Give the backbone structure.
Amino acid sequence: MLIVGTVPVRGMPLVLGEAALEGYHLLVDGQRIPCTQGTGAMVSAALATTAYLGIDPPHALLVGDTGDGRGSREMYRYLIDRVAGLSPGVLALHYWLPIMSLTRALCTAIDRCQRRPFMIADAGSMYSAKAAGLAEAFDVFTPDATEVAFLADPEATHPAYIARHLFETDVSRAPELARAAYDNHGAAGLLVVKGSTDYIMRDGEVLATVGEPDVPALEAIGGTGDTITGLVTALVHAGLEPWEAAVIAARTNRMAGKYAAVTPATRVSEVIAQFPAVFRDHLCEWSGVCYVKGERSHGGG
Amino acid sequence: MRLFSKRSEANFEGGGLVLFQEVQHAMLAEKVLRSAGYEVRLVAPPPELRKGCDLALEVNLVEQPGIERVLGDRDMSYVSIEPVKTRTAPLLEVVRVTDFGDWVMVKAGNMKVTFDKSTGVIVNVSGGGCPDIPYLHAELIGRPLAQAPRPRDLGFTLCALNLERGLEECQSIHVGGVRA
């Protein structure tokens, strides 16, 4: 599992390594990265999941970029040159400056891999994949209600510019917009549409919805969409079917919000801190993956 | 050593056009933006977008605010920056407000800003997908609305532009004393 994205640390060089937790920071190849909105939250969510399951932690390819795109370009180039050698089983792309030509070059490089990775995209990487007409090369996108309208618009290259008839992006329209996205080749194989109700869709059909527990304040908390993507990534890496991983990710995020008694002022790290308790209480019931920590090496279920 | 630069590439596709009144303005802007590190390409604008001369600069539309800042700082003359796809329109026109009791969340396009009603302090920023957003998130949280740095000054992307719109609306609501 390789998670790729920019982090808001000015001047941080490109790093690649196993992610570890150090207090409220992530540690990757000697660099300390805040567990805040964006790729930091996504990696932290994946790490919390792998730690609970007792499997290998995520590898992360990160670079500092505060918006001018220099770090993003370095990351694209590195990945284009090295993805075949890195050969990740699951490749999750996250924040970066959307650049269509470099995304196209990356997908060409991935096509040349001996083993094609399972491809997940969210945030800027989802924008560039869709804008470049490459959405269908991906296995999972995790848009919110506004972003699914962008996916549905065949001409849009960024969610900030979309056709006027798509402006009213109430999440109740998500299935309709997602179907338009599939029709217009703007959707990945599986869509996890995040909102007051989460919709998990494949080929235009709703496979599942998740609406409970209802924790409206989660929408205000920066990073709570990133955590869903991190959960999906780790759960797919752990061997769950993608749609099942998506359902469990959506449920876990909501339940963690409830456990943390979130308000709109809560930090995403407080939500992630509840994941182990949510897994302990519900993962067996939700997934059928039932074991007590330490049992697996003795053949525990 | 700088390993990678934003040099123009043969297959560059940016999705945005800077339109000019004069050909020499377009050529000067190309030089200025290239020297600032932006990937650009001189192109002929399609007839439906032609507002001045027959030369335009193709740019990465996502980088519109950063490009506008560079052109503005150098006092460069241009007409506008437009998406190549003419049937799209800026979503930041759509602003929604959610009242959470002690807090108000403003959604502008794909960005959300939440502030404390009593103190006017920004408590959260969410949404977006461009690399300046996690940076702006860190810069804005904990700041009173009146003293918050402006996304249009610190940001580079369309996500930052939406965040700027959201912040403006938060300031307007707080100054106006709108309470539930």
